[in-house]
Each structure stands twice: as C-alpha cells, then as structure tokens.
Amino acid sequence: MGSSPEIFRIPDFLSMCEYASSLNPCYKAAGVESLTWFDSFSVLTPRKRTMFIHSNADLLVAYTYPYAGYDEFRTCLDFISLLFALDEITDDQTGTDARLTMASFLNTLAGDPCDGSVISRMTAEAYIDAVCREAELRERGEILGLDEYRLLRRENIALRLCFSLFEYCFGFDLPNEVFADPTFMRMFYGAVDMIALANDVYSYNMEQAREGHSCSNIVTVIMKEKGFSLQRTIDYIGEEFRSLITDFADDKETLRSFGEKVDTDVYLFISALETWIVGNIFWSFSTERYFGKDHEEVRKTLTVRLAKQVGSS
C-alpha cells in the first residue's frame, strides 16, 4: 500500500546503527552559562534567537560529546552554538552578504578554530566557502547534481570542524599517517555522509515549506536527478545509509595498526565518530528543530506530514 502524498515515512536510522549513546551530565549547567555568553553578543533577532533556543545546541553537544569534561564540553558547546548562529544568519542572506558574514567568522578565528594548526584553518575555510556557495545557490534557486552536492554537503555541514574537537576532548593528537590512511579516511567521511543523510531527511519537511530553501537538501537533489517520488527518494537514502554503516563496520575490522599507543587513540576517535552518528539521531528527535511539537510522535511512528509552503493557501 502506497503512502499518501501528504505524508512520508522516514527511515529508522537508529535501528541501523547499534552504537551506544549517553548524555553528558554537564549539559544543563554548561548550557545556562553558554547561553548567557551567547546572548551577551546579541547577534540574533528575537525570531532567530527563538529558533536557536529550540535547536537545543546544548543537548546536541551532550549527545555527541558525552565523554567531555566540563571545560571541554563548554568549549564544544560555545563553538557549535557559533556554528548554529552562522547557519541562522546566513540562511536568509544573499551570497554576497553571506561572504561578508563568514569573512568575519574567519577573522575572529584568527587561524585558531580548534587547535591553531594549518589543517584546522584550511578546514574552516572550506566550510566558509561551502556555506557561501549554498547561499548563492539558494539565491539563484539552483539545484546541483548529486555528485557535486555530496561534495558541497561534506563541507557546509561543518562536521570536519566538529570532529577536530575529538582530539581536544581526549587530549591527544593523531599523527598525520592516520589521516593519510585511506581506510581511516573512508570511515571519517562515511560518518560525515551518514550524519548528513540523516540531517537532510529530518530537515527536509521544514526546508521544503520555506520557498527556496530545499535546493540544498539531498532529498530535492535526488528527486530531480533520478525522477523519484518523495517516498522513493527517502527509501533510497535509507538504503544508502545502511550501506554506509556496513562499510564503516567492515573498515573498522580491517583498519591497519599504527602501533599500540596510536591504535588506542585511533579507536577512541572512531568511537567518537560512532557517538556522533547516533547522538545526532537522538538529538534530532529530542528537540523541536525539525519536527516541531510532534517530534516525540514522529520518533515513535517515523511518519511525517508534509507541511504547506509558507504563503500557500
């Protein structure tokens, strides 16, 4: 039996990944401190601030960095709150204005987004370029091809920046040979891709209801490129997520040794990737960011009612 065109059923991503999840106990106290710090800059309009509050960045960080100590957690939360704010600000900007906003962001980082390394700065610049390009595409109403979109999405989701915080939280630096290893990097980008797929599915309904905002979503990209219906597209994404997580598990089994001490750190890093994958899913159903007040019901039924576009009757 087919689904109604007014509803669609999202994949059960949670059942596909059997990673453990937990909440960082620091998040409530640190969340209050971080919000006070954030509000002191008055960077968001009242409407945008309300959207920011409903995003529960503190809860996202609690799910994705459950092992972080208080100071490390607060740093992660402040940084990810900044990324959320940039997302809200540039979401309504033209490409030109987005470039000005992101230039200010880069100047503020002053080459020290996470650890002061050249790689961190390059990662930040790649993210900035991707966000600006997304704004330009939205301004023109242009939908990329699937392969090109995947590359853009790997950068504008900012996960490479978020993953760079793992080493800070754990207190180690993985040697360059680890990041040069193709199996390790396949796992790294596999995690990015899985989180991006889930995020695009969860955010699609909200974005398609806002004119011009669904062009930077893999659901829209696949429907246009492959001519699939909405439900077929969502199912296709679910199949891809399952394939990615299978590949991730296989790579974890075959990853070469880098030496006993380094291997310990590598597997802590991999466990942090797994935590981010599952933590993102739990957070998405624990806030009103994507599913509004129906988020608990959507979590139970995996059924989403297609929202009307703003301005439509």
UniProtKB/TrEMBL annotation:
Q: Check the record and name the InterPro entries matching this protein.
A: Isoprenoid_synthase_dom_sf, Terpene_cyclase-like_2
| Cofactor(s) listed in the protein's UniProt record | Mg(2+)
| EC id | 4.2.3.-
Query: What UniProt keywords apply to this chain's record, in alphabetical order?
Result: Lyase, Magnesium, Metal-binding
Q: Which GO terms describe its molecular function?
A: metal ion binding; terpene synthase activity
Gene Ontology BP annotations: isoprenoid biosynthetic process
* Protein family: Belongs to the terpene synthase family.
Tell me the protein's name.
Answer: Terpene synthase
Per the UniProt record, the source organism is: Phellinidium pouzarii
Q: What is the taxonomic lineage of the source species? A: Eukaryota, Fungi, Dikarya, Basidiomycota, Agaricomycotina
